[in-house]
């Protein structure tokens, strides 16, 4: 069925009476949620490890990844808002070929499990450290139970607001620390334009770290969360296109500032003090060195808040994506349960799978938190070629997109993302085979 194109009276009223800060705050919804969804342990660990081990020499990886994130998410959002048949983003992939829906189902199940694996592990370790308990597994279980009991209930909204405040405090602490460290602006510029992979240093190889940064930022399946949040906000048609683009730009700019601050802390403080980011406490020590015990507590409280909010966010978002994929594979389920995804009984089981099964990675003998985080984010590179290629084809379909098809720069960028993902995956595979 063709999409209707109603006039947004609310927007017209705002244009007539001007924009207040309160109105702007209400409009900036999905972008803020996107920042919280993106800024998890992936960005925190990959950026700090890259900075601590390799200084600014791989800053170009972060720059390219952030640019690709904006382009990919913007095209995803535009497709959902502007396609002429009112399709969801998964519907767009599914209409190309049924194999895309199957791929998204498997990819979301695997990456949802693994993403929550390191999030739960990190949240348990952060909580155990704060409480001075030698039982990180028990603390991970407590986080899992709390998320299960709180998600979807009215009280969770209040807790999430507290978590956002704590996350902001940690972000401000890193930003202040980055400024106080007097970053080498020339080094940042040279690293951004350098396009080189330095020799391996530290526990994690340079190529693995580079792939992990790309996976955590540009290739993250969390990028698919944005359309679902837009829908809940009520942004459903071309009339919301400008709002969506500005909102996303705001989110990406905030992400740039945060990632850059974390990278600078790694390059200017952790590296010179021989802190290699092998545990969460290595990051905490950076804030302790400058701000004393208060800085250490700010970091761990903020890290716990980030990880807890990320576990809750992933537990909410991934089941929607998985259920949507299932309903495109089996359309009878959509006809039976309607367009509200959580009404499908499978949604609850997918939520349980995404939240409970990752606890196995918190058992003794499993990879440490930092190694698991880097490895899982590097795995995101597997899905990036499929995601970018599918997006390239469907966002250029005239019958679907009409005047909203990609411009030349966007097509080049998606092609570049595909080639980059294939190249780094090949290089990493060759390196692992010869190791």
Automatic annotation (TrEMBL):
Per UniProt, the keywords (alphabetical) are: Membrane, Symport, Transmembrane, Transmembrane helix, Transport
Leader sequence range is none
Membrane-crossing ranges are 21-39, 59-77, 89-110, 130-151, 163-182, 202-225, 246-266, 294-312, 346-363, 369-392, 412-433
Q: Does the keyword Oxidoreductase apply?
A: no
Question: What is the superkingdom listed in this entry's lineage?
Answer: Bacteria
Q: What is its main location?
A: membrane
State the compartments where it is located. Answer: Membrane
- How does it sit in the bilayer? Multi-pass membrane protein
Q: Which InterPro entries match?
A: NRAMP_fam
Q: What is this protein called?
A: Divalent metal cation transporter
Q: Which organism is it from?
A: Pseudomonas typographi
